[in-house]
Write a structure and sequence with these properties.
Layout (H helix, E strand, L loop, with lengths): L4 E4 L8 H11 L3 E4 L5 H9 L6 E5 L23 H21 L3 E4 L9 H4 L3 H10 L7 H39 L2 E5 L10 H10 L5 E6 H10 L6 H6 L4 E6 L23 H6 L2 E4 L7 H16 L1
Parallel strand pairs: 1-2, 1-8, 2-3, 3-4, 4-5, 5-6, 6-7, 7-8
Helix pairs in contact: 3-6
Length: 311
């Protein structure tokens, strides 16, 4: 299979669209993913270059909503507890899907959101608290103090996630006609927080509920590594990784430390060889590096993955 590699516009956001496309072509990328920080004027610039550099996927919420104070992939959540927030998420996601259709993309990447850890008691088990605790233990997630904290945190997380599943199912159902109309698949991304929703188990349940519908997972290698290092992966992780057909796309990110999860491949310790089935089966394989990743680091990362896929 001839794997095509895309570059997210989240890298080098200071570049004008035309200059970004030139750089992506020079590096050897085949397509783009429009990131959630693309604003309407920039979108027009990328549209002008579609003949040379197609867009395969679009990351919600794109373009940046005019009313938003800043770009962020979790400005709105389809799984929010209150109906008004969900309605806003549905409106903005509809705009992203329509944007994807305009540029010829076939997938939209979405963050489902986070379950609330709002009380003082719950915040003692939050992602930030657990990250600090793990660093104090020098990364040993089996250390007694961290393991005790994690067990309590996971129980809280599981209870709160159960309440969101039916909410998200209902919202996805409302979007199916639009997705089908434009032949676009919605990809729910795994996220690098304990509070992330859906987690691995919840995502598999959602995908089972929408088996023949345009809903799949989107696998971020860096986010997965962060969850693994902190012990946040759920019991169906092996199933999650071994069923490549459940994923429409990947973000190829490496992890430099406990939470810097947007390095180019080769900068950290992600085992990309173990993810080869996903790499070869996904319709969209996207590099999504931070802006601080250098051109040479990105070039080397692309070459590494190309060699891996070529065998």
């Amino acid at each position: 299979m001839n794997v095509k590699f895309a570059l997210s516009t989240s890298w080098r956001p200071e570049l004008a669209p035309e200059a970004f496309v030139d750089k992506a072509l020079e590096l050897g990328f085949d397509a783009l993913e429009l990131g959630y920080a693309v604003r309407p004027p920039q979108l027009e610039g990328f549209k002008r270059r579609l003949g040379e550099m197609p867009v395969g996927s679009v990351h919600a919420f794109c373009p940046v909503p005019v009313s938003a104070p800043a770009a962020h992939p979790e400005l709105y959540s389809l799984a929010a507890a209150d109906a008004e927030s969900r309605a806003l998420a549905r409106i903005q996601l509809t705009r992203t899907i329509e944007c994807a259709a305009e540029v010829g993309a076939t997938a939209v990447v979405l963050h489902g959101g986070r379950v609330g850890f709002g009380t003082l008691f719950s915040r003692s088990f939050s992602t930030a608290t657990l990250r600090t605790a793990l660093q104090k233990e020098k990364g040993d997630r089996n250390a007694a103090k961290y393991a005790k904290m994690l067990k309590k945190a996971q129980l809280t997380r599981k209870k709160r996630g159960e309440k969101r599943l039916d909410i998200l199912k209902s919202e996805v159902e409302k979007l199916l006609p639009l997705l089908e109309k434009h032949h676009i698949v919605l990809g729910l991304e795994n996220l690098p927080y304990l509070e992330a929703f859906p987690n691995e188990t919840e995502l598999l349940r959602l995908l089972d509920a929408f088996k023949d519908e345009p809903l799949k997972g989107w696998f971020d290698t860096g986010h997965d590594r962060v969850r693994e290092m902190h012990g946040w992966l759920t019991e169906t992780t092996e199933d999650f990784r071994k069923e490549p057909g459940r994923f429409v796309g990947l973000h190829l990110n490496d992890v430099v430390d406990y939470h810097d999860d947007h390095g180019a491949p080769g900068m950290g310790n992600v085992n990309f060889a173990a993810l080869l089935p996903l790499l070869k089966s996904a319709a969209h394989v996207v590099f999504e590096p931070h802006a601080h990743v250098s051109t040479e680091q990105l070039r080397q990362g692309l070459r590494q993955i190309q060699r891996l896929v070529a065998g």
